[in-house]
Amino acid sequence: MSRTNQILIWITLLIVGISLTVVYFWPKNEPEAVTFQDAVEEELTPQIVKIDELVVTVLNGSLKDGMASKTKDYLEANKIYVTRIGNAPTRNYEVSEIIYHPEASQAAYELAKLLNINKRTPAQSFESRLFATVVIGADFQEPALLVSVE
Fold first, then answer.
1. What's the number of CA atoms in the CB half-sphere (13 Å) around residue 66?
2. pLDDT over 80 at 22, yes or no
3. Is 77 domain-assigned?
4. Residue 67, class by beta-carbon neighbours within 10 Å (0-12 exposed, 13-18 middle, 19+ buried)?
5. Which pLDDT score, from 0 to 100, does residue 69 have?
6. Domain limits at 99?
7. What does the pLDDT look like over 75-91, one tens digit per residue?
């Protein structure tokens, strides 16, 4: 075999070897398969509910007329979705209260801070962790007097 043929064979083997090495060690960008255990753990991992994800009902439990409507307007001005307003079953609530799903405690805290309400009550009975109810009591400060969050 001539020296030229030996060099060509060596270069070919070198090129093939490099290309095989590149193909073999090339990083794969395929998504990892999700196992059943991963899916269960993700489902059980609580996600933090943000205040702007809440679906809020506002009930007037005070004798001051129009408080639910004013509170709704104030909350919507602060980008919080109010699904319903109305009167509470009785209108003799002394203390205002926020009732929320236990997984939404951080959002309920922020809502209470926004409305200057101290009483927060978790309720497992809510169908969704995004639901919250504001019950306006006699101690409630009118939303027009509260400073809007920008």
1. 5
2. no
3. yes
4. buried
5. 94
6. 51-145
7. 999 999 999 999 999 99
Average pLDDT, the chain: 79
Q: What pLDDT does residue 93 have?
A: 95
CA distance 19 to 103: 54
Same structural domain, 74 and 135 = yes
Q: CA 128 to CA 57: how far, in whole Å?
A: 13
Angle at 109 between CA 41 and CA 141, to 5 degrees: 155
Q: Which residue did the predictor score with more confidence, 85 or 45?
A: 85
72 shares a domain with 20 = no
69 and 23 fall within a common domain: no
Report whether pLDDT(133) > 80: yes
In three-state form (DSSP H/G/I as H, E/B as E, the rest C), the secondary structure along 55-73 is EEEEEECCCCCCHHHHHHH
Residue 99 inside a domain? The answer is yes
Mark whether 12 and 63 lie in a shared domain.
Answer: no
Residues 6+ apart with CB under 8 A from 139: 94, 95, 96
* Integer Cα distance of 85 and 60 in angstroms: 8
CA distance 138 to 91: 9
Cβ within 8 Å of residue 143, ≥6 positions away: 70, 71, 73, 74, 75, 115
